[in-house]
Design a protein that fits this description.
This protein is mainly alpha-helical. The chain has one domain: ABC transporter involved in vitamin B12 uptake, BtuC, CATH 1.10.3470. The chain is built from 14 helices and 4 strands. Strands 1-4 form a two-stranded antiparallel ribbon. It has a two-stranded antiparallel sheet with strand order 2-3. A hairpin with a 2-residue loop joins strand 2 and strand 3. The chain is globular. It is found in: Cell membrane. This is Simple sugar transport system permease protein. It is a multi-pass membrane protein. Its main location: membrane.
Length: 333
């Protein structure tokens, strides 16, 4: 009888947690709709087809990496290496294809493997030596940023003309190829996060790492896989960016890591770990991208744009902290 009487309270608590996540996503969707209405009435050309396709391309640059970073932050970690990793990937694929005598297919393969390697290295430093993930990925950020500029003398490396590059940098049936890749990867990561043992392990580590270890979760393996995944996604983004620009550039994607982290946090992923959804991140990506596009169309000074984005990140973190504290209080009540 005792078990029967104690069971019902768990359902309402679970319902409140789910309602909280849904409220965050509904709020983001409403904010995006408001942005569309406001920009559509104030920014000339916002609703044009070319601009909407441009928003999709920009969203893909942020979104592809954001899927991996979502899992990293859910696990209670952080990855700040995205921007230089994307730039270096664009340089690497261009150098390999144009100057090192490799075919385009081999150049893409080398770039993807390199992405796995530097991401795995950051994860190994975190797992093997308990180096804070911020420091490990800061090292990768600095090394890749320097290498990208050193190998190119800060000049673009022009890619050879190739049909595959035209497709990767262009569109399929009128839809930008990077956006198609982003959507496909979104469904893959949404499935992994929700329905696989790996995804459950990521949430468990973020919620309580010692308890997850006692439950049999291999923390080292999960952490290495997490950062190897973000390295791979950065490489994919860099290849698509190089195809779009027609060249590799060590100075490309500057500050991308901040947009990615902002999108993840705005999407409701807790910086403390243990909470977050891919759907929330998708909406966060849309929110960040639409704001960036609108600021450009409105003619806002580029330096002031950075100020506005910084304010948005701070506000998003504050809201996230407040929601996390309330969720914790709800669980304890």
């Amino acid at each position: 009888m005792t078990v029967t009487e104690s069971a019902p309270p768990a359902a309402p608590r679970r319902g409140r947690r789910l309602a909280g996540r849904s409220l965050n996503e509904i709020g983001l969707l409403a904010a995006i709709i408001v942005l569309y209405l406001a920009l559509g009435s104030s920014a000339a050309g916002f609703f044009s087809l070319d601009n909407q396709l441009g928003i999709l391309r920009d969203a893909a640059t942020v979104g592809i990496a954001a899927w991996g970073v979502t899992l990293v932050i859910i696990a209670g970690e952080i990855d700040i290496s995205i921007g230089p990793a994307v730039a270096f990937s664009s340089v690497l694929v261009a150098k390999a294809a144009a100057e090192w005598g490799l075919g385009l297919g081999a150049a893409i393969g080398v770039t993807l493997l390199a992405g796995l390697a530097w991401g795995g290295l950051a994860g190994w430093l975190r797992a093997r030596f308990d180096v804070p993930s911020f420091i490990a990925t800061l090292g990768v950020w600095s090394a890749l940023g320097g290498l990208g500029l050193y190998l190119t003398d800060a000049l673009p490396v022009v890619l050879p003309e190739n049909g595959l590059l035209t497709v990767l940098g262009g569109s399929i049936l009128g839809i930008p190829t990077p956006a198609i890749v982003m959507v496909i990867l979104f469904f893959v990561f949404a499935y992994v996060a929700r329905y696989t043992a790996y995804g459950r392990s990521v949430y468990a580590i973020g919620g309580n790492a010692p308890a997850a270890r006692m439950a049999g979760v291999n923390l080292s393996r999960i952490r290495i896989l997490l950062f190897a995944t973000t390295g791979l996604l950065s490489a994919i983004t860099g290849i698509l960016l190089a195809a779009r620009l027609g060249s590799g550039n060590g100075g490309a994607a500057s500050g991308l890591e901040f947009d990615v982290i902002a999108a993840v946090v705005i999407g409701g992923t807790a910086l403390a770990g243990g909470r977050g959804t891919m759907l929330g991140t998708l909406l966060g990506v849309g929110f960040i991208t639409v704001i960036g596009n609108g600021l450009v169309l409105l003619g806002v000074d580029s330096f002031l744009q950075n100020v506005i984005r910084g304010v948005i990140i701070v506000v998003a973190v504050l809201v996230n902290v407040i929601i996390t504290k309330r969720a914790r209080a709800t669980r304890e009540s």
